[in-house]
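Re-run requested by the PI after the first attempt was lost when the workstation crashed. Everything re-entered from the original request form. Ligand of interest: DTB.
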Amino acid sequence: MQTTHAEIARPAQTAQKKWSIAEIEALFKLPFSDLMFRAQQIHRENFDPNAVQLSTLLSIKTGGCTEDCGYCTQSSYHSAGVENMKMLDIDEVLKAAKAAKSAGAGRFCMGAAWREPSENDMKAVVEMVREVRALGMETCATLGMLNDEQTEQLRVAGLDYYNHNLDTAPEFYGNIISTRDYQDRIDTLERVRKAGMNVCSGGIIGLGENLTQRAGLIAQLANMDPYPESVPINNLVKVEGTPLAETEDIDPLDFVRMIAVARITMPKAFVRLSAGRGEMSDAVQALCFLGGANSIFYGEQLLTTGNPEVERDRALMNKLGLYPLTEKH
Ligand code: SAM
Ligand code: DTB
Ligand code: SF4
């Protein structure tokens, strides 16, 4: 099996620190410069500080989801104007993956609006994973809950990462999603880990959660043993027709703090500055990189919402002296 960047960056783990929620909250409350300094120090001990991992997302099955996640445009409970579409065929997926590769992405992430995949869905996805991997890209998929057999099918196909977010703290989860519970998410993550694939799991901020709940999400992630190789931190993208459309905006500096706390508590993870970059200034994104973010979604589109244009990201990276991970490793 091809060695992945995460495996290179993350040698055998020694005993992992356990974080209490109070300790994590104390990190959030540090003076901003102290927090950034500490995060940047840890970042430099573990990574090339100027290399950024680039992942391109493709929605392989959009809309009509049977879950009721309050933030999501694709839930059939909401009216965000996203249609229930059929799954893309393999040629469309490969075309997008080749374009992502030639634009400089190292990883291709395939997302589906499913509670869990069916047997037929799995047949198609397994083929997609095999073929995308054959292009020489890292592969990631996010398909909802998995059972043991499905996890094994993905591992055999050569899937490098499985994304499944915890999204928020356990005690706030029920305010956002009622059709599954927190333990369902943890069970899928454990299956992915047991099968030997890299775990990608993170969350969203700006859902109306308080600081203790942000710390609670970080504690869940950082205390997994081992913690995820990839940790996406999303800023809620508010879309009309979803229950969270009117939620109050968070202060962008609080987003930066979330990134820095993820970096400090999960020193060897790739921390991804994920959804919400379209609404962020270059200055805020620069602070996120300083706080230890070293991965982004790269390409005009996330799943159903926009992301910065490739040209804008290239210009930002040039301005900051950042380069794609694949070019230097
Ligand atoms: N259906 C699968 C699932 O829920 O795991 C995979 C796709 S789902 C869209 C993947 C993740 O995208 C969610 O867990 C959530 O963290 C993030 N997400 C979805 N809608 C979002 C939004 N409006 N703003 C920010 N993040 C969002
Ligand atoms: C993740 O943490 N963020 C991505 C990915 N994993 C699948 C999804 C962001 C979705 C943003 C809203 C949309 O485009 O629909
Ligand atoms: Fe479905 Fe995933 Fe959206 Fe939830 S986040 S409604 S599971 S697509």
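Saved to the shared folder this time. The beta strands are 51-61, 107-112, 138-142, 161-163, 198-200, 203-205, 230-235, 270-273, 295-297, 323-324.
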